[in-house]
Amino acid sequence: MTRIFILNGHPAETSLNKAMSLSYARTAEAHGHEVRILHLHDLDFDIDHGYAGYTEVKPLEPDLNSFFNNLEWCEHFVMTTPMWWGGLPGKLKGLFDRALLPGKAFDTRNTKMGMPAPMLKGRSGRVIVTADTPKFLMWLLYSNAMLRQTERQILGFIGLKPVKSSFFAAASHPKPTTVKRWLTQIGKLAAKAT
């Protein structure tokens, strides 16, 4: 049994990302894994860090504390997110900006080659991305920038390893048969907690 924390990173109340996160949760629970899930649209917090550095840290709202506590609790973190303008939705990026703080997620006093030490080691991750850009163009035109950002610069930076991605496109108006196939793929990942 694996402790899995799922974050639906789509800011709308209904979305393909929400369907994917719920499908992953149901399948993982059916295979004996312990699951917690949060939906970005339910979380109430100010996305603005508010200050120019970490010297005056804005107190975390209860929903940000809940997110971070679930991240500490889990052994495997799963995030579903759309790709908008080549990156994460603003509210999702704001969640990371506000909740992943020095002294909690990374240690700036303990560095190696100038990089802060990650503080959330011992966890793996899966990023499930929906987009309209075909996967081969993500690689060819954009060097998989968003995937590298989420895998390495956010989740890897705080210690999650390995972090793998699943990419689903074209996601704006997929056929029902396509969505069914995608949900089947997600179910296979969930059954193995990968």
Automatic annotation (TrEMBL):
<dbReference type="InterPro" id="IPR051545">
    <property type="entry name" value="NAD(P)H_dehydrogenase_qn"/>
</dbReference>
<dbReference type="InterPro" id="IPR003680">
    <property type="entry name" value="Flavodoxin_fold"/>
</dbReference>
<feature type="domain" description="Flavodoxin-like fold">
    <location>
        <begin position="3"/>
        <end position="176"/>
    </location>
</feature>
<protein>
    <submittedName>
        <fullName>NAD(P)H-dependent oxidoreductase</fullName>
    </submittedName>
</protein>
<comment type="similarity">
    <text>Belongs to the NAD(P)H dehydrogenase (quinone) family.</text>
</comment>
<dbReference type="InterPro" id="IPR029039">
    <property type="entry name" value="Flavoprotein-like_sf"/>
</dbReference>
<dbReference type="Pfam" id="PF02525">
    <property type="entry name" value="Flavodoxin_2"/>
</dbReference>
<keyword id="KW-0560">Oxidoreductase</keyword>
